[in-house]
Write a structure and sequence with these properties.
The chain is mainly beta. It contains six helices and 23 strands. 12% of the residues lie in helices and 49% in strands. The protein has an 18-stranded antiparallel barrel. A two-stranded antiparallel ribbon has the order 11-12. The N terminus is likely disordered.
Length: 497
């Protein structure tokens, strides 16, 4: 058929392209990497041609159509079963069995309007009755895990006119997962309105929201209802400017306000203890690359704000709680080096630190926290960075180095990346000798060493299996009874359709 005939009949051309796509061996395409002329390149060109034909078809037929005719819907589900063996800080072991089902639906209207909803059913079972929190069997909430609406101006304009705007505004509202910057400040679910905008090399990102009512833990585990209800209001803004592909610096400001009940208190032998922790995080960082194979992310954070002091000082003297200042620091550097070989081998390096405070007994709560009339120098946030499977310490009073690698084992010529293995090695150190870390501190900076191993096997297109194992070897910084080896092992299988 001539090019003129194809242009005159877009529906026919799209049908021919779809038939061509069905004839293309997709698994082979995914397996070939990025060499010129291979099946992946052909598939990419095919997808681009299909998208362009789709735009042309929308421009010709969208006017006068109903919403239902202009809407695309995707839906699916996944089932997962996993079993884990866990050691706590005292060396006690627990076995956890998890049953999980996820249902999702996604819809798009006219390119720029996106809707997403996810129902999650997660059941935890400790068959030996050895749950750390006493809840041996429970259905975890929320069921409505994530749901949001998103509007993308550039996509909507492209769908309507076929023209790409030089700028864009993206707005998203609902319950969503937010990983702010490197994740050290905030990495959690939230009810939020998120805005992103870009113009040439300048980008803006920000959101306002509050912590999710359920399905998350407050960083302060000494608070009543820390695992069932937390109300912290969140405000964030970030500006990025791409100086070059290799260097994209940013500055961000994150505000957390404690809106938990004012009458919320915990009774102690020294009388009632109140909680009020308000913090701000000023961050400077950058993303970019060094050469074609090495990428990096960097963030340096200063935390300020106010906190209520401890209601007592050692040795066991009750004192009034006072509002004291916060002045803490943290930093994260992630580097990834990709070999770009057939097995998609990569090497990674992470260094991270967070300051501590000698007044505290623990890093995960304000109980027995900052001494009255002094500055709290312990870094605290609702963020998360990967600090291992077995020990998994908080970032407060911690210096960490992680070295990792992963590669594929070619057990299937059609899917060379179906089986991937990897390992991570962690080195933990205390920054301040007199401040606690995650566990009662001994008279040493050396916390310990951890090795983690992982295996991910895509058995079929719908079935996958995962294995994780971590072992932590404590150093002299952990005093008895926290100076035990810790193990973490997990095995799971999932089915998605």
């Amino acid at each position: 058929m001539s090019p003129k005939a194809l242009k005159a009949h877009p529906l026919l051309s799209m049908l021919l392209l779809v038939i061509a796509g069905m004839m293309l061996p997709a698994e082979s395409a995914m397996a070939q990497g990025g060499a010129p002329g291979n099946s992946l390149e052909v598939l990419t060109r095919l997808e681009d041609a299909l998208s362009r034909q789709d735009i042309d078809l929308r421009l010709r037929t969208s006017r006068g159509q109903t919403v239902g005719e202009r809407m695309t819907i995707d839906y699916g589900a996944s089932l997962r079963f996993g079993i884990a063996g866990i050691n706590d800080a005292f060396g006690s072991s627990s076995t956890l069995m998890q049953y999980e089902a996820n249902l999702f639906v996604a819809a798009n209207i006219d390119g720029g309007h996106n809707f997403f909803g996810n129902l999650r059913f997660l059941y935890n079972d400790y068959p030996n009755g050895d749950a750390f929190d006493g809840e041996n069997s429970e259905l975890l909430y929320p069921i409505g895990n994530r749901y949001w609406y998103e509007f993308d101006l550039r996509a909507a304009h492209l769908s309507e006119t076929g023209q790409r705007l030089p700028y864009n505004i993206n707005a998203k509202v609902g319950r969503m997962f937010i990983n702010w910057n490197t994740g050290a400040v905030f990495s959690n679910d939230a009810y939020a309105l998120q805005i992103q905008a870009d113009w040439e090399k300048l980008e803006f990102a920000g959101f306002i929201g509050r912590t999710a009512r359920s399905g998350m833990y407050d960083f302060d585990i000494s608070r009543p209802n820390y695992d069932g209800y937390t109300n912290r209001h969140l405000f964030a803004a970030r500006i990025d400017y791409e100086i070059a592909t290799e260097f994209k610096p940013y500055v961000s400001y994150f505000i957390q306000r404690d809106r938990n009940p004012e009458d919320e208190e915990r009774q102690t032998i020294f009388g009632p203890m109140n909680f009020d922790y308000n913090s701000e995080y000023l961050s400077f960082g950058s993303t970019g690359s060094i050469g074609p194979q090495l990428t990096y992310t960097l963030e340096v954070i200063r935390e300020t704000g106010t906190t209520l002091s401890s209601p007592f000082v050692l040795p066991i003297i009750p004192v009034p709680q006072t509002k004291d200042s916060i002045d803490a620091w943290a930093g994260v550097l992630n580097v990834i080096y990709a070999l770009r070989d057939r097995n998609l081998t990569n090497f990674s390096l992470t260094t991270a630190f967070g300051t501590g405070d000698p007044d505290r007994l623990t890093t995960s709560g304000t109980y027995a926290g900052n001494r009255t009339g002094t500055t709290d120098r312990a870094f605290n946030s609702l963020g998360y960075i990967y600090t291992g499977l077995a020990y998994a310490p908080d970032l407060a009073n911690l210096g960490m180095v992680r070295v990792g690698a992963s590669t594929a084992i070619p057990i299937d010529s059609k899917r060379p990346d179906a089986l991937r293995v990897g390992s991570d090695f962690f080195f933990f150190n205390k920054l301040d000798l007199g401040s606690p870390t995650s566990g009662i501190s001994g008279d040493s900076h050396w916390i310990g060493f951890e090795m983690d191993f992982r295996l991910d096997w895509r058995i079929t297109s719908d079935i996958s299996a995962n294995i994780r194992y971590g072992i932590f070897f404590p150093g002299n910084a952990l005093a008895e009874p926290f100076d035990k080896e810790r193990h973490f092992i997990y095995a799971g299988v999932s089915y998605a359709f």
